[in-house]
Amino acid sequence: MPYSFAVTARSQAAPEAVFAALTHAATWPSWSPIDSADVEGGDPAARQQVGDTRVFRTGRNVSRERVVELVPDRRFVYDNLGGPFRSYRGTVELAPTAGGGTDITWSAAFEPRMPLSGGFWRWYLTRFVQGMADGLAAYAARAAK
Fold first, then answer.
1. Which of 66, 104, 138, 143 is most buried when burial is the number of CB atoms within 10 A of its CB?
2. Which residues are within 8 A (CB) of 60 and not within 5 positions of it... i.e. 6 or more apart?
3. Axis-axis angle for helices 118-144, 15-22 (nearest 10)
4. Phi/psi at 81 (nearest 5 deg)?
5. How confident is the model at residue 144 (pLDDT cuts 50, 70, 90)?
6. b/e for 85-112, b at 16 or more Cβ within 10 A?
7. pTM value?
8. What percentage of the chain exceeds 90 in pLDDT?
9. Are 2 and 119 in contact (CB under 8 A)?
């Protein structure tokens, strides 16, 4: 059974600044709980492209995510490869605000491997990703100054 969630945050930064943070894996440890970020066969400081696989480490946990869609300054879509999910697709939508900032909507649809664990994962991921969205919003605003 598929599950989903969505969280929102607002950044004082313009969409291009938020998008730049999303598409440079090396920035993620600066604004999220992730300890380190690498790109398989690439440079985490370079702008990621569709098809790139990013490797994030948080404590002993390692996750791999493939970038599947990029719409400059508007959308960032990735698939989590493995872990506790049969499938997991995350989407970050960016919308300019009237005041020059950015509304961030970070959502995901997923199917857990373990039956009956979907409710737990939705609860956990909603909290975790809200922290990611808030961190991204604040980081982009600081970086844009």
1. 104
2. none
3. 120
4. -105, 100
5. confident
6. beebbbbbbbeeeeeebbbbebebebeb
7. 0.95
8. 94
9. no
Length of the chain in residues, anyone? 145
Residue in 45, 64, 62, 46 with CA at minimum distance from that of residue 54: 64
9 forms beta bridges with 104
Tokens representing 103 are 């509304």
Q: What is the pLDDT of residues 68-124, one digit of tens each?
A: 999 999 999 999 998 899 999 999 999 999 989 999 999 999 999 998 999 999 999
Q: What are the structure tokens assigned to 59, written together? A: 């404590």
Quickly count: other Cβ atoms within 10 Å of residue 20's Cβ.
18
Interatomic CA distance for residues 66 and 51, integer angstroms:
6
Radius of gyration of the chain measured on its C-alpha atoms: 15
Asked if 141 and 16 count as a contact pair (C-beta separation under 8 A), the reply is: no
Q: Which amino acid is at 16?
A: E
